Amino acid sequence: MPLSIELSAAVDAGRARSNNEDSVALDDAVSMAVLADGMGGYNAGEVASNMATSFIRTELGRWLREAQGQASDAEVRRAMDICVDNANRAIFIAANSNPQYAGMGTTLVLAVFRGQRLLVGHVGDSRAYRLRAGQLQQITRDHSLLQEQIDAGLITPEQAAFSANKNLVTRAVGVEDTVLLETHLHTVQPGDVLLLCSDGLSDMLDDAGITQLLQMHETLAAAGTALVEAANDAGGKDNISLILARCAVAASPAGASPSWSW
Predict the structure, then answer these.
(1) pLDDT tens digits, 53-94
(2) What is the distance, to the nearest Å, from the Cα of residue 12 to the centroid of all Cα atoms in its chain?
(3) Fewest C-beta atoms under 10 Å: which of 12, 186, 198, 242?
(4) What whole-number distance in Å separates Cα of residue 53 and Cα of residue 23?
(5) CA 15/CA 135 separation, integer angstroms
(6) Is 74 helix (H, G, I), strand (E, B) or coil?
(7) Are residues 179 and 85 in contact, defined by beta-carbon separation less than 8 angstroms?
(8) How many angstroms separate the CA atoms of 17 and 231, rounded?
(9) Per-residue confidence at 252, pLDDT binned at 50, 70, 90?
(10) Phi and psi dihedrals of 131, rounded to 5?
């Protein structure tokens, strides 16, 4: 059963910052979405996030178009690894050759839809969620000190919401000369909605609030606007970026008979 993927994005500086260090990139032709949340002083975070999303959209997008759907999932994962590694190296070199960019880096979350399958890769604490049949599930696990403390049983998820260590990531793109992209394969069903977001959204809204807003709006654009407004109403303490993707059964060409697989 072929699926069509609708993509939409929203980015906002929030209420506490004058500049925006988040960046998003979409490629509808290959059903790919990339989101990055930069870090570093003197607007260096903005440079890092834009380098990451631009590089991956260009390089991985080109590779996916040339593959024309013939590549295996393992080959796509390998391409994702290589493109992120190359982006990491470019950011790392820029950070170490320009004092103004010293220490810059970025989190990253990347999604590639392949029919009824979805490949998600991430670095840091930018997240991917899936809404299916009214249930929201986080399908990435933060690379952060806070998540490590939760995993070790040192604090509870409820205590984590008030932790001072909320923004300390243990993995980021461009901070070291190599980086490990964590990737996972997921199945996709008609009606699924994927949410990629920076912590400027996930720190401001809980799962119940996100779920309610996604279900209240018919269009992805309206849902994205509502999520940004709600995050700002809750304080808007950081830049807010999100990408929404909705899966639907692809329409058959006019006059074509439906195809069946057994």
Answers:
(1) 999 999 999 999 999 889 999 999 999 999 999 999 999 999
(2) 15
(3) 186
(4) 7
(5) 30
(6) helix
(7) yes
(8) 14
(9) low
(10) -100, 120
